[in-house]
Amino acid sequence: MTIEDLLTYITNDKTALFLFFILLPILTIIITAISRGRSLEKPYSYLYSMLLFEVCIPGVLSITLWIYSMFFERKALWQLPFFIYYLPVIIMVLCIYILKKKRVSIRRLPWTGELYEFLVLLIITFASLLIIMKLHIISFNQPWQLGLFALLCLSTLHLLWKRMASLR
């Protein structure tokens, strides 16, 4: 499986992908309207944290894929599909903007430290997978093989990260 095959597999159902990404800012607006300044209270803070994870993970993956396509594959910006490269980043920026506009303190939400750590590990894992796929070191025939290998790499990096943090 090549990177192009993976992107084609993801974009088979563009309607579902579009609805998922459009639903995220709508949920952000609804949750901020319901919470009305109580963003650090228990149910709302966890909802905001989960929303940040749902928005930031696809956005960071999209940015990583964007950088890979521009530098390794030398693709022009207009050749990149909108639903994979641009929509997740736009929705991520929009949701974070809505949260900032409603005065939600993102740094004080639960799991935001883990979010930053997870996003760094995700970037390292995804970039490593893209390089492995580009150099044809390991051949992935099915998407589940790629997902399993990505999960293995991510969990290994997480264990190494925790080990290094405990050495301080």
Molecular structure report:
- The model has no long low-confidence stretch (mean pLDDT 82).
- Helix 2 packs antiparallel against helix 3.
- It is built from 7 helices and no strands.
- It is globular, with a radius of gyration of 18 Å.
- Helix content is 75%, strand content 0%.
- It has one domain (3-166).
- With 168 residues, the protein is mostly helical.
- It has helices at 3-10, 14-35, 42-71, 82-85, 87-101, 112-134, 143-166.
N-to-C order of helices and strands? HHHHHHH
Radius of gyration: 18 Å
Distance between the termini: 41 Å
The gross shape turns out to be globular
Domain count: the total is 1
Helix count equals 7
What's the total number of strands?
A: 0
* Class of secondary structure makeup: mainly alpha
Largest sheet, strands/sense/barrel: none
Which spans have pLDDT < 50 for at least 5 consecutive residues?
none
**Average pLDDT for all residues:** 82
Strand content: under 5%
Provide the fold topology:
Layout: H1 3-10, H2 14-35, H3 42-71, H4 82-85, H5 87-101, H6 112-134, H7 143-166
Helix pairs in contact: 2-3, 2-5, 3-5, 3-6, 6-7
Compose a concise summary of this entry.
The chain has helices at residues 3-10, 14-35, 42-71, 82-85, 87-101, 112-134, 143-166. It is mainly α.
Task: State the main characteristics.
168 residues, mainly alpha, 75% helix
